[in-house]
Design brief:
By secondary structure, this protein is of the alpha/beta class. The chain folds into three domains: about 260 residues, 3-Layer(aba) Sandwich (Rossmann fold); about 160 residues, Beta Barrel (Ribosomal Protein L25, Chain P), CATH 2.40.240.10; about 120 residues, Ribosomal Protein L25, Chain P (Beta Barrel). The protein is built from 14 helices and 25 strands. The strands form six sheets. It has a seven-stranded mixed sheet. α8 crosses α9 and α12 packs across α13. It is elongated, with a radius of gyration of 31 Å.
């Protein structure tokens, strides 16, 4: 996130005003506070880059804090993955890695303070009864029969809750606010529940755990956060956070809400993403079809892509949906700048050059970055009598505007020679298995000596030198642009794309790719952008298609 980007959004306008009026004494400190109950997705990436970018643009500080208040759903696996993903995005929290669990004792003491002030009480209602007493959006709630317990009784019960004397779900601590408030979050929210569960960091030290709404704002205060930047779903929670801060008399950050990221053909709900994983609709959190940062990294996305996309969509005050074509456009533009070109034949068809010497091998020097006129780097590819071309580059009965191979047609082999197709072999089922062609020895480099014009150019790989690989062609996970908009009773999984993954084996690649390492990215000419998958080994090369070459969003923009 650049300084130019942050200086033009409404959040920065608010911060600029704070800098002028001295509210935080010229200090800016932001944070990213994930719950470690799943993997981060691209929506989180937007928030991370926004918070980190704002801190940088004001020479401030950025914290990473895990709001680890629910041991039933949190795992060390998620903590490790989130830490790695935030670092991969380029956000640097320096030495400021914190956990809400670091503050459990302070939160407990503050809860006692509220009890002593008559602003919190222990409630014996069940979870279902609490829901019934809370009321609705149009009807006020009603007071719990336990709301008027004495301070001493509440202190005693809360202490016994902490000591583990009561079973799970039997009692909670609630803030005493206003059961008639039009804001349901104000209707005596639960602050603590009893959970006899092991916590990833505190073990069995605690058997009462703070609710998110109680721990979140106070954790920001403890850390000296100046601007608590979060998504719009927390807007209705802000008055409650302010109420806690005000009644405790502690440092008050400024909460600012912005629109969350919504993408077409994508779901962003952690619960739904977890379902996709647990019900085996995808192959884990890092499946390249998933919008998780892990999945996108494996798909071939770069941190630069994520940063440029975040800058392009900007920061808004109201929710909207971004077309996935825009994201793919940014990705192509990013990869196009640095991804080396390579030749890969993904559906091979053998081609024999009948007039080429059988034992001869030539080498041709071809540009590695033809898109960059200032980059003269080249690579050498071998050429021999037998090569592979794409099946789709030959038609037995080609239409007039087909500029590739057909009987009697001449094409250019990229960087090599001009060839003419003379015959096609077929198997017993009528499938074409081998093409027999002749080449023009005077057209080395693909340039005929007589200056004749040849429209068609196709890529190829020497059969003698080719490297075999598996290619995984990923497509969108859902067939509907808005997969969650289904008819009543129809689950969002009904919109899953059955063709979101096609696995091709026996693909033939130029030999330069034999040494490709996991994470290396290439543009396979005329095929798209590919990345070496984490499952790949020297003996079993596997490439994922990151994105195709066709840029539909750019075309839409040109025509709009």
């Amino acid at each position: 996130m650049t300084e130019e980007t942050t200086s033009s959004n409404f959040i920065s306008n608010i911060i600029d005003e704070h800098m002028r009026n001295g509210r935080f004494h010229g200090r800016v400190q932001t944070r990213f506070p994930p719950e470690p109950n799943g993997y981060l997705h691209i929506g989180h990436a937007k928030s991370i880059l926004l918070n980190y970018g704002i801190a940088r643009s004001y020479n401030g500080k950025f914290n990473l804090r895990f709001d680890d208040t629910n041991p039933l759903k949190e795992e060390q696996e998620f903590i490790d993955a989130i830490t790695e993903d935030v670092r991969w995005l380029g956000a640097d929290w320096e030495d400021r890695l914190f956990y809400a669990s670091d503050y459990f004792e302070q939160l407990y003491q503050w809860a006692i303070q509220l009890i002593k002030d008559g602003k919190a009480y222990v409630d014996d209602l069940t979870a279902e009864e609490i829901r019934q007493y809370r009321g609705t959006l149009t009807e006020p709630g009603k007071n719990s029969p336990y709301r008027d317990r004495s301070v001493d009784e509440n202190l005693d019960l809360f202490e016994r809750m902490k000591k583990g004397e009561f079973p799970d779900g039997s009692r909670v601590l609630r803030a005493k606010v206003d059961m008639a408030s039009p804001n349901i979050n104000f209707r005596d929210p639960v602050m603590y529940r009893i959970l006899h569960a092991e916590h990833p960091r505190t073990g069995s030290e605690w058997c009462i755990y703070p609710m998110y709404d109680w721990a979140h704002g106070q954790s920001d205060s403890i850390e000296g956060i100046t601007h608590s930047i979060c998504t719009l779903e927390f807007e209705d929670h802000r008055p409650l956070y302010d109420w806690f801060i005000e009644n405790l008399g502690i440092h008050a950050p400024q909460q600012i809400e912005f629109a969350r990221l919504n993408l077409t053909y994508t779901v962003m709900s952690k619960r739904k993403l977890r379902r996709l994983v647990e019900e085996k609709f995808v192959d884990g959190w890092d499946d390249p079809r998933m919008p998780t940062i892990r999945g996108m990294r494996r798909r071939g996305y770069t941190p630069e892509t994520m940063q440029k996309f975040a800058e392009l969509i900007g920061v808004a005050k109201s929710n909207s949906t971004v077309e996935i074509e825009m994201l793919e456009h940014v990705l192509r533009d990013d990869l196009n700048q640095f991804a080396p070109r390579a030749m890969a034949v993904i559906r091979p068809l053998k081609l024999v050059i009948t007039n080429y010497p059988e034992n001869m091998v030539e080498e041709f020097e071809v540009p590695t970055h033809p898109q960059d006129k200032e980059n003269s780097e080249t690579r050498v590819v071998p050429f021999s009598r037998e090569i592979y071309i794409e099946q789709e580059d030959f038609l037995e009965n080609p239409p007039k505007n087909f500029f590739r191979l057909g009987p009697g047609r001449e094409v250019r082999l990229l960087g090599a020679y001009l060839i003419t197709c003379d015959a096609a072999e077929k198997d017993a089922d009528g499938n074409i298995t081998t093409l027999h062609c002749t080449y023009d020895p005077e057209s080395r480099g693909g340039n005929p000596s007589d200056g004749r014009k040849v429209k068609g150019t196709i890529h190829w790989v020497s059969a003698q030198h080719a490297v075999s690989a598996e290619l995984r062609l990923y497509d969108r996970l859902f067939t509907d642009a808005f997969p969650e908009n289904t008819a009543d009773g129809v689950d969002f999984t009904a919109n899953l794309n059955p063709d979101s993954l096609e696995v091709l084996t026996g693909c033939q690649l130029e030999p330069n790719l034999a040494e490709a390492q996991v994470g290396d990215r290439f543009q396979f000419m005329r095929q798209g952008y590919f990345v070496v998958d984490s499952d790949s080994t020297p003996d079993n090369l596997i490439f994922n298609r990151t994105v195709g070459l066709r840029d539909t969003w750019a075309k839409v923009q040109q025509n709009s």
